[in-house]
Amino acid sequence: MTDDSEAPLASPRWLMLVSLAGALGFAAFGLGYSLFHALPTLYWDGWGYAEVLLRAHESGSLADWARALHHRHNEHRPGLAKLVMLADWYGRPGIGLWIHLALMAAAGAFLFVLALADRVDRASLVVLMVTGAGLFLAPVHVENTTWFTQAQFPLFLMLSLGLVWAAMAARNTATALLVACPLAVLCAYTMAAGILAPVAAGAAALMFRRDLPRAVAMAVPTSIAVGLATLSVEGPAPARAFAAPMEALAYGLAFLGSVTPTRTVGLAQAVGLAIALAGISLIAWGAHRCWRRDRPLDPRAASLLGSIGLILAVALATGLTRGAEGPPAYALVSRYALVSLTGLLLIVLAAVRFWLHRAAVVLAGRLALVGLAVVAAVPHPWVSQVIQQRQRLADVADMARNGIADPEVLRFAYPSAEALKPILVSLRRAGLGLYDRAAGPAWPPLAALAGAAPPDPPACAGTITAVTRIGPGAVRVSGVVDRRAAAAPAWIVARDEGGPIAGWTRPRRSVISPQSDVFALAARSEAPPGGIIGLDAAGTILCRFAMPASSPVLLAQMPFMPGLAGTPADVVISGEGFDRAGAPPAPLRPLAGVATVHGSGSSGAARRGVLRIEIRAVAEGQTLALPIATGEDHRRQTVRLVDVDGTVLAEAAPAFREHHLWYALLLPAGLLRPGMALVVTDDGDGFGEWVAVGEPRWIAPSDTGGLF
Q1: Beta carbons within 8 Å of 12's beta carbon, 6+ residues apart
Q2: pLDDT tens per residue, range 164-187
Q3: Are residues 165 and 299 in contact, defined by beta-carbon separation less than 8 angstroms?
Q4: Is the pLDDT of residue 5 over 50?
Q5: What angle separates helix 45-59 from helix 62-70, to the nearest 10 degrees?
Q6: CA-to-CA distance for 447 and 402, rounded, in angstroms?
Q7: If you compute the radius of gyration of the chain from its CA atoms, what whole number of angstroms results?
């Protein structure tokens, strides 16, 4: 390791300019990718945050705001992430995403400041900071860069690593304590792992600085953080810990290796093991240098090693709390990849700092950073699903602004449509952010529809595939648009002749056909609207869709289920390429209420197949639910509803939020008759291309749709 007195390392001017151009391009790519795929509304856990914040908004009392920010979500208290949401509500809609992306970029830049600010010249540090920002905006953790409700991740990393650094760099123990205490409070309100930050600072002070008083002093901020984390106001119970140690280890290694752009559990665990071994080796080397060679590390080096220990502790804690809840495959989600990437970066930066004076190691460090940038830029397997999530959540946003609750769409955004509808009602009535009822259909293109529609507009290149009543005073109109048409509409609007606008939406990219767009338009009407028209981007009427004489069926999806109530359906199941078993293929959990599973293969043993489920009898007033799950790759799988004469009435791609979890396809009894069949087709025989289907059941229909 070099001495602090050495001059900072400088690079040739031409290399600096090339490096800066490359870093700016990489960061711009990540920023553009994030903005293009950003989700336009809250998603999943974000709605849980919204519920408690709305109660505080309605009361307006300071005590209720404090409770809302302190409210626990699982084992976390993400109070600071809720502040980002509030900025989006009370400020300009969309500002939350920009704040989140700024936090992501700042956290990435901070890593390089922490590691090398005193080792390189200012120009080189700027290049490195831009590179760090680009790495934290890269698609490898696309969920974090596109869900602004994930702000707890960059906040946790920046505040936790900042606490470790500040505790090491403080001139004396009193100053370290003075700085660490408020930072520990902030860390406690990012994620549950924030309580580990002062622990890591204390361990670093002892192991790498031989500073026992400073290490003991870190017990104070640790106690504060633990106290805030465990102080119960309300919220779901935290996950169990220490329930299954071996499962915890397997899960933790997969978590630590989730930066790998793959869904292969074994490969991710191998990468996680390599990160863990490299981190432990660096920590052991630093402790040896400090204690056996009597050479305490400088504050930045000590904070780097302490931060590596923090990341390893987070992986272990995640395994202990999540490992008993599901297989290691559950850890391979891109939102975890940010912590994995941070651990990998810290190891590279620590190695570069320790041996910066060796030219070969400097070159190796630069090559490693280039390799990391390439890996981070590779689209993660989650990208395709995030694209689909964005499309469905755009429908949620459109319907919310139209004041219509569509249960099937709401179930995609939150596990319970019943719980989500009152949240949307409250947001709209309160006039918060994107859900402001006063905004309504106020987008500029709709101003062109103030007058009557032009006579006899041409037919749109597309079809209406379904018109479904979704509740009192509301219907859903679903359709397909041919993207290859010369005048493909940019907007779809429901309006009777010369009447008011009943609803509007945009076409979304189809997950089944690459040449088609699809739309799901919620309209304020008791009956099918008299006219569905297409507009161009400027609001000019392009065409009119022909309404079908009879409405075909549209398959709806319900999120994953711990169990499925109801009664078994009278069906006949036949086909080829599907195994019949009493338990689902690993790592799917058994599904309560479903005794038999038909699967086209499990991960690593996938094959093609067709499964036909013929409906023998229909339960009037009920909904047919077909349990279904898919592997990592679902691009070549479809589900079709076929009429008695062989006509395909509906088609869907089983593309879900989480692989390896059970979902259901829903069909109301009123749209079915004996002799119809559900046909599940798996045309993929590659790794992870499999589909599993449970026996269908009749369940009570949900009634949460309609106007609000």
Answers
A1: none
A2: 999 999 989 999 999 999 999 999
A3: yes
A4: no
A5: 170
A6: 16
A7: 27
Residues 6+ positions from 101 with CB-CB distance below 8 Å: 31, 34, 35, 137, 145, 148
Token pair for residue 631?
Answer: 């592997």
Dihedrals φ, ψ of 369, to 5°?
Answer: -65, -40
The encoded tokens of residue 36 equal: 């293009």
Omega before 587 within 30 of 0, i.e. cis = yes
pTM: 0.80
Strand partners for 467: 477
- 156's enclosing H/E stretch is helix 152-169
- 601 Cβ contact list (under 8 Å, min separation 6): 579, 585, 607, 609, 689, 690
Q: Please, what's the b/e burial string for 97-118 (b: 16 or more CB within 10 A of its CB; e: otherwise)?
A: bbbbbebbbbbbbbbbbbbbee
Nearest alpha-carbon partner for 343 in 249, 280, 270, 250: 280
Which residue, chain included where needed, has tokens 């592997």?
631
Q: What is the largest CA-CA distance in the chain?
A: 89
The residue written with tokens 């077909």 in the block is: 626
Phi, then psi, of 459 in degrees rounded to 5: -75, 140
| Amino acid, single-letter form, for residue 448 | A
Name the residue with tokens 């192991």: 207
